[in-house]
Design brief:
single chain; alpha+beta; OB fold (Dihydrolipoamide Acetyltransferase, E2P); 2 domains; five-stranded antiparallel sheet; 9 helices; binds adenosine-5'-triphosphate
């Protein structure tokens, strides 16, 4: 990325602070929101230039966290500091109003002003911050140009495609020089085809953004493509964080395992075996002691009609469901015997399913390839 290609997030006039806040730069937050029936307590930290994705199931608290960062939902505890400046801290009664925060927000449906042109939409924020009209329009034109929308400056939102509207929303959010950019499900409003292009484009823009960006998504692919680091939230609490690769390789909850498409079990490791239940051990290539996770892809599972000769990593199970999964068939199984109740996903070719004459409720044996299991400390 060349310097010239970088989006200048340092202020409408492009004025920098000369690195005066270096060291304290970025996001430092503990977001506590207690609503009685729902409690959020999430600690977030990010350096300038980092993109964080908040990922989690419905109702986990992602939007509440984003709204708290924007100042739209007051904190009941914790703190929010940006580049060393405290924007909110209930314990010392400090709270900067949403409009006073150096924060840009892109809402799910973009919320562009329908009666204003793309240029006027982008110029709106700087005008509200007191920038003279001509300067605000020049800045807006420059931002639209960088977004490849110079030809659409005079277009009203209803005549823009989903991807174009999103770029206008991004330009509008950047126009006030935010130190924190918030994106709520940035690709949710787009159809599958547009999503592909817009995802790649948004990735370029976010990679060029110099301050902190936080996005909320349900979609692991969006999170993986767009973010440097994922924070998975469940029931108002962070349950796992790391780079997309770390999270995908070492899931720590069932939700994350499903998201990244792995089977995940927890047990007690002793050397090369992780004991999952009495009489049920899973051999792994890693050597571990104590509480451990073991994960493997559905493609590592083989189904048999009879107990396999090599009894290692094999257990009886029942076919609980089958569905197409790309060019494979995903078979859902429920363990029996020592594996009673253990859920398992297996990916088989259509030929394998036909040869086994598999049907719902069938009793089978499953075996898992030793070299495809991955064990790590819990
Ligand atoms: N304005 C509100 N007042 C009271 N409760 C709310 C409000 N908004 C959300 N909630 C509740 O707070 C919890 C967290 O919701 P939130 O919208 O933050 O989750 P989410 O992770 O963004 O979910 P989704 O992916 O479904 O958007 C839920 O139990 C929800 O019902």
């Amino acid at each position: 990325m060349t310097e010239a290609g970088r989006l200048d997030a340092r202020g409408p006039a492009g004025v920098t602070d000369g690195g005066a806040t270096a060291g304290a730069g970025g996001l430092d937050a503990r977001l506590v929101v207690d609503r009685g029936d729902f409690a959020l307590d999430v600690t977030l930290g990010a350096r300038p230039g980092e993109v964080l994705a908040l990922l989690g199931p419905n109702g986990a608290g992602k939007t509440t966290a984003l709204r708290a960062l924007a100042g739209l939902t007051p904190l009941t505890g914790g703190h929010l500091r940006l580049d060393g400046e405290t924007l909110e801290e209930p314990a010392i009664r400090r709270r900067t109003a949403p409009e006073g925060r150096p924060v840009g927000v892109i809402f799910q449906d973009y919320l562009l002003f329908p009666h204003l042109t793309a240029l006027e939409n982008v110029a709106f924020g700087p005008r509200c911050h007191g920038m003279p009209r001509a300067a605000a329009r020049t800045l807006a034109a420059e931002l639209l140009d960088r977004m490849g929308l110079a030809d659409h400056a005079g277009t009203k939102p209803r005549r823009l495609s989903g991807g174009q509207a999103q770029r206008v929303a991004l330009a509008r959010a950047l126009a006030t020089g935010p130190r924190l950019l918030l994106l709520d499900e940035p690709l949710a409003a787009l159809d599958a085809r547009a999503r592909l292009d817009v995802r790649a484009e948004l990735r370029r823009h976010l990679a060029a953004f110099e301050a902190v960006a936080v996005l909320v998504t349900h979609d692991p692919l969006d999170a993986t493509v767009l973010a440097d680091r994922l924070v998975v939230i469940e029931n108002g609490r962070p349950v796992q964080q790391g780079t997309p690769a770390e999270v995908a390789r070492r899931p720590r909850t069932d939700y994350v395992a499903r998201l990244v498409g792995l089977n995940l079990y927890q047990g007690e490791a002793a050397g090369h075996t992780v004991r999952l239940a009495p009489g049920l051990g899973l051999a792994t290539t890693e050597t571990l002691q104590g509480a451990a996770f073991v994960a493997f892809p559905p493609s590592a599972v083989t189904l048999h009609r009879e107990r396999p000769d090599r009894g290692e990593n094999a257990w009886p199970a029942e076919v609980a469901g089958m569905e197409s999964h790309g060019d494979r068939i995903r078979v859902a199984l429920t363990g029996a015997g020592p594996a009673a109740g253990l859920p398992l996903a297996a990916d088989l070719t259509a030929v394998a399913v036909a040869e086994l004459t598999l049907a719902l409720g069938d009793a089978v044996w499953v075996s898992v390839g030793l070299t495809e299991t991955h064990a790590y400390p819990a």
